[in-house]
Amino acid sequence: MSLLVRLNVALGIVFLCAAFIAGYACWAILEANGRREVLAEAGLMMDSAVAIRAYTAAEVLPLLEPQMRESFPPQSVPFYAATQNFLKLRERHPDFTYKEATLNPTNPRDRAADWEADIIQRFRNDPHANEVFGDRETPMGKSLYLARPIREEPPCATCHSMPSAAPPTRVARDGRDNGFGWLDNEIVGAQVISVPYANATANAERAFRGLMIALLATFAVTFGVVNMLLYSLAVRPVRRIVHIADRLSVGDMSAADFPLEGPREITSLGRSFNRMRTSLDKALRLLEGS
């Protein structure tokens, strides 16, 4: 195997090892950044839902209170307003899902699933926790979730404390069995936004492909430049030295002198061979004269 091939094999092995390490590290960083971006978007949507709930409680509910003597409009419920708004938002962002999951909801659609009930229990076990996030497996693949606790607060107490305290139209509309018994400042549920894991990795995959293509292109250019330099500075001068040495070894003293240009190591080798050639030439003349 020639010197150039050996060097190319060594460079290839070094590059593959470096590319693997760099690729692994970059993928981990890009994936983490992708998760943070998706969770930041989920947090922004969560803040939007909280704002809608506050707006409904502060401005919409007072306007609808006179109507509540005759019928109970669901638009007066902050939970309902936030959920309906997010359903409209999903028309443009279908990958995001939002749920105000509660253990004892008025609307059965808001009843917490098992994994959501676990999140609510986590908030109950740690009342100081304001937010949790994590991964979970779903039939559609891995999903990211962001959750915040829902506490029973004054706007909710009227409708959710006891049936006798709730507006009669609310009891007539929804019955006396669901959505009651909430205690003051009790954690009764959780706002949960879920996003498929693919959303978190999509940008990371695109950036990773671009990075790897750039690495391959850089290696190809570097590989070509290194090969040209190796051939010009080392391989070609060594081949000339080998060619001249072969001619001298068969007694062809008309061969050119060994080259003295190039890197210091090559010129030192050429001078050494020239001295050896001079000594050999003198030795041959002595032999011929004797």
- Fraction of residues in β-strands: 5-15%
Helix content: 55-70%
What is the end-to-end distance?
Answer: 44 Å
Structural class: alpha+beta
Q: What is the strand tally?
A: 4
From the alpha carbons, calculate the radius of gyration and give it in angstroms: 39 Å
> How many alpha or pi helices?
7
Query: What is the overall shape?
Result: rod-shaped
Record the strand order, biggest sheet.
Answer: 1-4-3-2
**SSE succession:** HHEHEEHHEHH
Low-confidence stretches: none
How can the largest sheet be summarized? 4 strands, antiparallel
Average pLDDT reading: 80
Number of domains: 2
Would you write up a description of this structure?
The chain is of the alpha+beta class. The protein folds into 2 domains: 11-202, no CATH class; 206-289, no CATH class. 62% of the residues lie in helices and 12% in strands. The protein is built from 7 helices and 4 strands. Strands 1-4-3-2 form a 4-stranded antiparallel beta sheet, sandwiched between helices. A hairpin with a 2-residue loop joins β2 and β3 (141-151). The model has no long low-confidence stretch (mean pLDDT 80).
Question: Key features?
Answer:
4 strands; alpha+beta; 2 domains; 290 residues; 4-stranded antiparallel beta sheet
In short:
The protein is α+β, with helices and mostly antiparallel strands. The protein is 62% helix and 12% strand.
